[in-house]
Amino acid sequence: MVVALGCSLPGAYPSREVLLEAAVDALASEGLAVTGRSAWWTSAAWPDPAAPAYLNGVVLVETRLPASEVLEALHRVEARFGRVRAEANAPRTLDLDLIAHGRTVLNGAVVVPHPRAHERLFVMGPLTQIAPGWRHPVNGRTAAALAAAATVGMDAKPAA
Question: Which end of the chain has fewer CB within 10 Å, C or N?
């Protein structure tokens, strides 16, 4: 399973990096065992690049939970870190996205794979670091190929 993490605000933490490290650790309390992780990547905010920049990364996770329960668990972790869903694309303390749940394809209340992740360099770039041969469950392209073809977040790069 692939989960993307991102934040533009540190919330109660001293930095975005510290917040994201704590979020990675918090996944275990929800039955999500992290088995691999990327470096943190930075990118400008979208659609307003004047807003605080984002820090993003990707983790590989093992769990017995179905996709719907994974999504609920991710929302609980976001809430613990002060995530408020008030305005689309607003700066936020934590954003957790279920990118893929194995080869599962769902198009109902829960949608997997994530419908836009394959277009985003700030998701596919980090995923390429840890699983370049990962294949998208619908289009069959590898993470490396998707990163090379990404059209969103083109300024994304590993954080210094």
Answer: C
